[in-house]
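All the exercises in this workshop are built on plain-text protein records. A record pairs a protein's sequence with a compact description of its fold. Backbone structure tokens are a discrete shorthand for how the chain folds in space. Once this layout is familiar, the rest of the handout is easier to follow. As an example, a complete record with its sequence and its structure tokens follows.
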Amino acid sequence: MQNSVGLPGTLLTHTVSGVRMEGAIRAASVALFAALTAAAAQISIPLPFTPVPLTLQPMVVLLGGAVLGARLGMFAQVLYLFLGIAGLPVFAASPLLPQGALRLIGPTGGYLMSYPFAAFLAGWLAERGLDRRYVTSLFAMACGLAVIFVGGVMWLAIFARGAVGLDAALRAGLYPFLPLDIFKLLIAAGITPALWRAIAPRG
């Protein structure tokens, strides 16, 4: 099934287009992925050599984009950030970094603020059918993950309070996370193709 502009569409558009209460389902899906991003933040591992914790959030952000599409995936992450700015405890727990708006100007702010853009890119690629096969799904999610790392590292290097410079930012915000994030990416990239295969008989 294609969307209104002739593109292959996403899992969400494929499953809810034309059904009763379509708008409500889309809104609930956005809220769901915002909540999943908040839940993933609570599964965090602080590392002694960097202020950036290890979390499951990037994979949820990218899956949200792939499932919801560019606009709704981005809206889910914007909603997540607004909840955090409002003071709800949706950011990763930290003895050093506060909840609320101040988190966005701290060392992890660049990662957080990159989430809407990463979800948009992953969703934009998914809307063009890249989430239906493993290799192309891996490429789409790798592009989104690159957005998160670029945003996070550049913020840590230049804009964050106590900016540390590019070399130190790479050592604190990229190198320690690459092996595990690549492993998680290899797993996450198989989820949307598997879901497409599951709903194929209905398509």
Q: What stands out?
A: The two ends are 7 Å apart (CA to CA). The chain is about 65% helix and 0% strand. The chain has one domain: 11-202. Strands lie at 44-45, 54-55.
